[in-house]
Amino acid sequence: MANCDGVVFHTQIASIMEVLANAAVTEICKLVDDDYAVFRLEMSQSQKENRALRRKLQLLELKVSRERVLASRPNSVKIFDGYRGMARGEEHFTGGHRNFVKPAGLKPWRDDQPIAINEETGTSTQHVIVIEPADAEAVGPGASSLVKQEKTEGEEDPQHSRDIQTGAAAGVAPPVAVVDLATTPQPRTRPSITEVILKSETDTETHRLLHTGSDHGSDPERLLLGRLGCSPAPDSKYLLYENSSPRTVHSHQDSSDALETVNDLSRSYMTEMDPGIMPLVLETQTDLSRGDWNPYSSRVYSEGCLDKKGEVIVIDEVKVEGDAPLTCNADETPIWKGYSQGNTSDFLDCRDGLETSLDVAIHSPSHALRDPVSTSMAPSDSHGRVFFDQVFNSNDRARVQTQGGGATSGNSKEKRFLCMFCNKGFSCLQKVEIHQRVHTGENPFNCTQCEKRFSRQDHLKRHQRVHTGEKPFSCPQCEKRFSQAGDLKRHQRVHTGEKPFSCTQCHMRFALAGNLKMHLKVHEGERPFTCMHCGKKFSERSYLRTHQQKKHSSV
DNA sequence: CTGGGGACGGGGCCC
DNA sequence: GGGGCCCCGTCCCCA
Name one GO biological process term (predicted). Predict the structure, then answer.
């Protein structure tokens, strides 16, 4: 009986214990679940905040860049490549690769020329943008952040700073501080890559790569600065000939990938730069017909732009070019002389070793990256043409190259050189270079008297007759003189009565095509110009102007 | 409206 | 291959 009671007792104890245990487990599970839910909620909120901050920062920087360019260089050429963020006359961000390209000019470059001077404010424009990673802590203290530095000397961007501070307050430790390079010495031993480059602007140091190719021996100023830790390809024609103090490079990974790449050390890097192997490959060239635009370096934009797509926060950068306007007298060597058509891709190919470093993250604006030489070599444009993203969009752009029998336009001469934009064929390299300025808007020849720019030297020379008053073409009938032969020829129709342009509607004839064109509007009834005073419509602006002067001059 | 000139962009050819 | 020139077309402006 006693045994029976004992068994019952133990059974009851066991069941009670079981109930208690189950209750405890349930409680623990509940607590864990609750905490986990809270934790996840907090995590997702933090991530969301970080994303929003990052996006906001990018937008702000984009806006600032665009406004700055628009304000400072109304005539500048603007290349916008929404994705690849290329800006003319400055480095080209070809996806993961940072290829800083500038014209390999000769005389137009002067080392003593001012760097990136804002023409209005007189301040230089070193841009420093720091984009914080979303999960810098997760990546670790040594983790890199995507860095774009955008800093204007003497000009603090409060919003920018605020955003950065906000980012820090949100738990994102900024691995790289915004450094006022103008006022703050850099005692750190680990400056970011962009800081390195910025210092290259302000210091006397430059990272220059001499171009030694025999076929381009006339180009002594091909300066390259760029890919850190990347030695030139063995057959590269570029030599690092000036390299100063050792630099430590702090590169950064794309913050947007921080979570996914926490364990991907290949994307997080801190590269100690060995000065001996530091051929910063900023190809100091901007001409579209050369360098990374160049067909000969097609890999720059055909391959390089692809590998990090989606991983790089690209802040479109509009080139503020011509900070030191290129001045080219008629007898000066044009900047396009002596550039390399050759192994541009050689030094680009060295990216392989750096795929995980610079390629990923650096999106420094050109101003920050130019050295004095590259600054002054920025080509220019006088008509504010806006470039098109197609420039980078395909390997088709890499077509300007010798293609045997590749002529596309009828000519007895073999046109081996194809325009990378329109595929038109030209017989020699220079011709296609000049032609491509049609597409690029590059105007490297600057009139010293009126700052007008021209794409061709002969056009500049012709233009300068405007200033000199030279009119070498005189009409034998009336002694009237003209500055252009074509003007004389056209004028002579006055004497000959020739009217080669006839209206198909009324058979009126005109000596000038423009006059016929204007006349056609009479038939078309097209009157797009309306007088704001009386509502009368005119087919030509000049008609409207004349009308307003006559009828409404008192208004 | 028409006539005409100034200036410029671009292609092609020649030296 | 590079520079210069010729030529054509076009835009803009003015009388």
Answer: regulation of gene expression
